[in-house]
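G., the chain you wanted modeled:
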Amino acid sequence: MTTKANYNNKDYFVNFNKQSMRDYYKIMHSQWFEATKSAKAAALKSGKSFLEHLRAGQAEGYYPGTPQVDRRFIDIQEDKFNTLIAYIYGQATLDSTIEKYNEIGLKEIGYYDANGVLEEYDKLNGMGEETVVRSQ
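Predicted structure as tokens:
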């Protein structure tokens, strides 16, 4: 599931599934993310598990250690989940759920902006040019 959010006059997609975590690792821990891709490729060739390759590479120092996910980012993901659960169990209306998802989307984009990596987020989830707001 994806929503569109406008942050600082620019439209972005915000994912409400595992893609959000994948993007987090790509942006915030890119070396580790690339190491996992390398370990998966090695596993396909060797027949051993991806984790065996990753752990061996980490132990030998050529793969970075597994990163800790920032608690602030986890809180945003939990908010996404809890909002969906509230809707599924009839504790929230569709309109209030959509409104909440838009708020959460802005919070997630703001997280990347506050960490100085909004440009990287934009590469993955930006929708092109800035939105031009015209007054009549």
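Residues 131-136 have pLDDT under 50 and may be disordered.

Shout if anything looks off.
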